[in-house]
Amino acid sequence: MNRFPRRTSHLPAALPLAAAALAVAAPVAALAAPTALAAQPADAAAVQRGLERLVAARDGPPGAIATLHRDGRTTVLRAGRANVKRPGAPRIGDHMRIASIAKAFSGAVALHLVQEGRLSLDDTIGSRLPSLPAAWSAVTIRQLLNHTSGVPDYTRSAAFARQATDDPRGYVAPEQIVDWVRADGLVFAPGSRYEYSNTDNIVVGLIAQAVTGRPYATLLREIVFGPARLRATSFPTRVALPAPFIHGYVVAGEPRPLDVSTFLSPSGAWASGAIVATPRDLGSFIRHDLGGTFFGAEQRREQHRFVTGSSSPPGPGANAAGLALFRYTTRCGTVYGHTGNFPGYVQWAAASADGSRSVTTSLNIPAPTGRLLRQLRAVQTTAVCALLKG
C-alpha cells in the first residue's frame, strides 16, 4: 500500500491518517552502534553514518536498520530506537510490516503457477475471473504484475478513505477491496503506459486462489514461506504484530512520535501489502526471489522484461518496472527488488541478479518526501556500493 487519506475525525486535525491516536512520551534515544554478524564489507561504515544522519534529521525516523548479505554472511547496521519508550535499535529478528514488498511475494506465487502451467502471463482477467468488472476483462496477468494494467488504484477511492477513517482496524475482505473500484473504468488502455496500482496485486491474489482452489495464505506458505524457510514471516488479517516488533511512527509535524504500529488493519492491503516479516527474512526472501527458488529460468526471463516505471516510493538510482520486481541502476551497479510504504514503515529489499547478495533498509516512519526521501535514496545507493564492491 502506498497511499493513505490525509485526515481522520478520530485524530487531531493536523495529523495525517497514517498517524495513530496515541502519542508517546519519550524522546528518541542516542544512536546505536553497528552490529555485525560477520566482518563488515567495504563502505559499511558509510551506510552506518547514513542511517545515523537519517535518524538525526528533522522528521527523520526514530529508528533505522540495514542489512548487507554477501559471501554467505550478513552485516547488520542500525541506529536509533525500535520503540521510543525504551532503549534499543531495531534488530534483525524484530517483526515489521513489509508493506508493498508483499507484491513481490504475490509475483512469486503467480510466476510459480505459470511455471506449473496453471497460468499464463497472457491470461486475462475476463478468462480467469469473469466476475470482475467487464471493463477490466482484457487486462492480462503480465500487465497486472508490471503495473501497465490501467486498473484503478483502490487506495485513491472514497470508499477506502471512509474505511480508514471510520473503521481503520476492521477486517476487509479482498472482494470488498475490489468493490471499492468496481464501478470505475480503466484509467488507460491496458499496456499503453505504466502507473502503479495497489489493486493490481489484489487481483493477482484472487486469480491465484481461483485457479488453485486454495486460499492465498496457503499458497504463500506452500510456494514462498516454506521453500525459502521464512520462519518469522506471516500474512496477518488482524492488526496485532508478533513480538518483538519494530514500532511504526508518524513524526512529521508532531511534537512527539505517534505510534501507528496497529493503526490500520493489514487486511485492507491483502496481497498488495499485508505481510509481516523480519529484516533477516526480508533479505532471505529477495535472495530466493532472484535466485530461482520459486520459479524457473523462463519465468525469470519474463520477470526481467522491464518497462519505464518507478517503485513507490522510488528506490535508489534509475528505476524500471519488471514483473512484481523493480530494477535499480546505481553508480555502483544494478540490483533488483521492491520498495514499500505502510503507516509507520518504509521498506526496501533488493538483490544481485543471481540472488547471491542482498540489501535491505527499514525505517519506522511512512515513506518520506522531498529532502528526506533524497537522503534515504542516497543511503540506499551507498548500501548498493557496499554490497557490490569487491
Structure description:
With 390 residues, this protein is of the alpha+beta class. The chain has a single domain, classed as DD-peptidase/beta-lactamase superfamily (Beta-lactamase, 3-Layer(aba) Sandwich). The protein contains eleven helices and 13 strands. The strands form three sheets. It has a nine-stranded antiparallel beta sheet, sandwiched between helices. The chain has a two-stranded antiparallel ribbon with strand order 4-7. Strands 5-6 form a two-stranded antiparallel sheet. The protein is globular, with a radius of gyration of 20 Å. The protein starts with 34 loop residues before the first strand and ends with a helix. Keywords: Hydrolase, Signal. Its EC number is 3.1.1.103. This is Serine hydrolase domain-containing protein. One of its GO terms (molecular function) is hydrolase activity.
